[in-house]
Amino acid sequence: MTKVQAQLPLLHQTSSSTEARRLLTTTSREEASKLPSPYQADGIFEKGSFLKDFQDRYETLGKREKLCLLCFAIFPENAEVSERLLRFWWEGERLRPESESDKKTVNEILEEFVERGFIEPVYKRSGSKGSCYKMHPIVRCLIVRHAKEANFFYYDCKGYPNMEFFKSKKICLVKSEGPSWWSKDVLAFTKAREQAQAQAQPQAEQGKDKKQAEAETMTKEKKQKQKQKQKQKLEDQERKEMEKKRAALETTRAKYLGNLQTLFNVSKQFPELPEELFPNMKNIDVLYLGRWERTAERHMEVVDVNFLRGLKNMSKLRFFSLQGISGIKKLPNSIGMLQNLRILDLKACDTLEELPEEVGLLKMLSYLDLSECYLLETIPKDLSKLSKLKVLKGFIISSNSPCDLTHLTTLSELEKLSISIHDDKFSIKEEESIKQFSKFKSLTKLQIAWGAGGIKKSADRAKHPEDKNKTSEASKLWPTAKVLEKYLKLPFLGSSKSVPKKGNVTVAAATAKAGQDKNGDNAKKKKSGAVLQSNVHANNKDQGGRSPKPVLQSELKLEKLDIRCYPDKEPPKWLVPKTLTHLKRLYFRCGELSHIPVANRDERWNVETLRLKYLINIKMDWKQVQKQFPELKLLEKVNCPQITFCPCDASGAWELKQA
Fold first, then answer.
1. In the CATH scheme, what is the code of domain 31-152?
2. Mean pLDDT over residues 216-225, rounded?
C-alpha cells in the first residue's frame, strides 16, 4: 500500500497552479455541454426499462390524479412545492374528487404519488416530515412530456413553461425581456419575433442584399423621384395592413383570454397585467399572481393596481392569490362581485392597509388568509356574513377595528382561526375569554399571537423610567391585594367580581389558620386545597352549592392550540387539561410564560405533539415533561435554556420510535 501511495500524485501538486485549475474547469464544462438534454433527446429513455416502468405506474392513475400530478411540471427542477398551494390549486381546478365513493384527501393523493415514486417529501432538519414535496429532474422530464400531450400549459424545448398564447387554455407568467403577448401593442411583439427570426437567416441572404444595394446606382434625380412615390405608396399600404393585422390580433387575443382557465405566475417579478386585457378573462378558474415560493427571496411588486378592477367580470373565479405582492394598499370594490370565489390568499401583502366592505359579499368563500399583513389594522364588520368560511387566518383585534370575536361567532362552519392581537386591553387570562371561543361550534384549531400593540404596557414602562417609583409602590401593595382577593373575593386585577357568602370567608379563614401548622408541607397542601375549594365555590355561586363543574369541558373541541408572544408570566386559567380534553397539539413560541399549568397533581395532558420555542422562563426537566404529557410522541425544544435533560437531537427534536 505504501508503494502504491507513493506512485499516486498529490492533489496540491497537480492542481496548485492556476493553469491546472483552468484546465480542469474547462474540461468539466466541455464534458457537461456534451451531455444530451433529457428534454431534447427523443430516444434517451426508450432504450432502458425505466420508461416502461414509469408508463405502467402512470397509466394506473385515474384521470383526476393524472391532472394533479401534471401540476408539478410547471415548477423548476428540485423546487419545493407546499401542500397548501397544491390543495388550493386543485380546489380551484375542481381536481379534488366530489363523489362520496371516492373522497380522497389531498394528503392521501400526495402519499399515493410518494409510494409510486413520482414525488418525494421534503424533511426538516430534525428529520421529521415536512409539508413540502419535490420531484426528481428525470421524473419531471417525463411528466413534462405528458403535460405537452395533454396541453397542460406550454413548454419550450428545454422543458421550461412559456407565456406563448393560443397553445393551451392554461398559461404561465414567466420572467422575460422585451415585449410579450401581454404587451399593450401586440403588433410590436410580433415584429420583435420576426426580427429575431430574421437574424437567424443565413449570411447568403445578407450578401444578396448588398448586391441589390450596389445595383441601384443610377441617375440620382430620377432615382429620388421614383423612390418618393414608391415610399408613399408603401407607407400607405403598410399602414392599412398593420391596422388590419393589429385588429385581427387583438380580436384573437381577446377571444383566447375569454376561454382561459388558469393563469399562474411562475417567475414574473412585476405581475401588472394590462388594464385592457385583464377584464377579458371571463371564464378563468384559477388566478395566481402572487409568490408560490415559501421564502421571500423573489420580491414582487405592482405600481398600478387599477387593472384589478377587471375582477368584476370573473364570475367563475374560484381561487385568487396575491401572496407576497407589495404596492397594494386596498383591494378594489369589484372583488365583491366574485360570487364563486372559494379561496382568497392575501398572505404577506405587506402594504395592505384596508379591506373593502364588499368582502362580505363573497358568499362561497371558505378560506381567507390575511396573515403577515402588518399594516392592516381594521377588519370590516361584514366579514361576519361569510357563512361558509372554514379557515380565517390573520384576524386583527385592535381598538380601531369594528369587527371583534363576538361578530365571528355567527360563522358556524369556522374550523381554523388565527388571531393577531394589537390591543393591550384584550386578555385571555380569565375564564370569560374562553367562553367566547366556546361559541365557535366547529373550531378545532386556534392560534393566538400578540403584536406590538398587544404588549404596549411593558414597552411604555421601558420607555418611561421615571415611573419606577409608582411601580415599586404598587408592588408593595401586591401582598395585601392578594390577601383581599383570596379571602374576600374583591375584584382586583381581573379577578371575579362576585363577592362570596359568609361560608366562603369561613373556609378561607380556616385555610389561613391551617397555614400556621407546625408541619410545613402538610399545611401548604391543606392551604392550597382549601383555597382551590373556595375558588370553585365562588365561581359556582349561582349553582346553589352544587358540585363544581369543569369549565366548558364538553363545549370546547380544540385539537390544536398555538400561543405566540404571550405577554404574562401566569398562563390563562382555562389552559388546563380538564378544559382542553381534545387537545393533541400544543405550541408555545416566545413570550413571558413561566410554566405549563395543571390544576392538580393527578391531571395529565392528552397532547401528542409539544413545541416549545424561545421560552426563557419555563423551568422543567424531562421527567416532568413525561409526567405531564404521558401521550407525547413528538417534542421540539428550541432555545429553552431551563428545560433540561430532554433526549433531543442537535436540532432540538425528540420523536417516539414505534416498535
1. 1.10.10.10
2. 64
Per-residue pLDDT reduced to its tens digit, 295-340: 888 889 998 899 999 999 999 999 999 999 999 999 999 999 999 9
pLDDT tens per residue across span 62-88? 999 999 999 999 999 999 999 999 999
Same CATH fold assignment for domains 31-152 and 155-178+249-376: no
pLDDT of residue 25: 58
**What is the number of other CB atoms lying within 10 angstroms of the CB of residue 310?**
20
**Gap between the Cα atoms of 441 and 461, Å rounded:** 40
C-alpha angle with apex 501: 498 to 502, nearest 5 degrees? Answer: 140
- Please answer whether residues 391 and 365 qualify as being in contact, where contact means their C-beta atoms are separated by less than 8 angstroms: no
Which helix (H) or strand (E) segment is 29 a member of? helix 18-34
Superfamily of domain 155-178+249-376: Ribonuclease Inhibitor (3.80.10.10)
Distance CA 183, CA 274 (A): 7
Nearest-5° Cα angle at 305, 302 to 308: 120
Max distance between CA atoms of the chain, in angstroms, equals 131
Which residue ranges make up each domain of the chain? 31-152, 155-178+249-376, 560-655
Residue 112: the pLDDT is 94
Does residue 376 register a pLDDT over 50?
A: yes
Which residues, in sequence order, are CB contacts of 626 under 8 Å at separation 6+? 632
- Contact between 333 and 356 under an 8 Å Cβ cutoff? The reply is yes
Query: What kind and span of H or E run contains 70?
Result: helix 63-70
Q: What are phi and psi of 591, to 5 degrees?
A: 105, 180
- Greatest mean pLDDT range, 6-20, 132-146, 588-602: 132-146
Distance, CA of 300 to CA of 304 (rounded, Å): 13
Collapse the DSSP code of 478 into the 3-class scheme (helix H, G, I; strand E, B; otherwise coil) and give the result: helix
How far from 155 is each of 95, 158, 164, 197, 643, CA to CA, in Å?
Answer: 22, 8, 9, 19, 53
Q: In angstroms, rounded to a whole number, what is the distance separating the alpha carbons of residues 370 and 349?
A: 8
Of residues 538, 553, 561, 540, the one with CA closest to residue 608: 561
Q: Cell 424545448 sits at which residue?
A: 157
Q: Taking a C-beta distance cutoff of 8 angstroms, is the pair 440, 408 a contact?
A: yes
- Nearest-angstrom CA–CA distance, 428 and 419: 12
CA–CA separation, 284 and 273 (whole Å): 15
CA distance 561 to 448: 8
Mean pLDDT of 49-54: 87
Rounded to an integer, what distance in angstroms lies between the CA atom of residue 379 and that of residue 370?
10
The DSSP 8-state label assigned to residue 102 in this structure reads G
Give tens-digit pLDDT for 506-534.
Answer: 334 444 444 444 444 444 444 444 433 44
End-to-end CA, the chain:
45
Instruction: Give the list of residues 6+ apart from residue 5 with CB closer than 8 angstroms, or none.
Output: none
Mean pLDDT, the chain, whole residue set: 78
Q: pLDDT digit string (tens) for 394-442?
A: 999 998 899 999 999 999 999 999 999 998 888 888 777 788 888 898 9
Of 250-254, 411-415, 493-497, the range with the lowest mean pLDDT is 493-497
C-alpha cell at 436: 367566547
CA pair distance 556, 437, nearest whole angstrom: 8
pTM: 0.75
3-state secondary structure of 150: coil
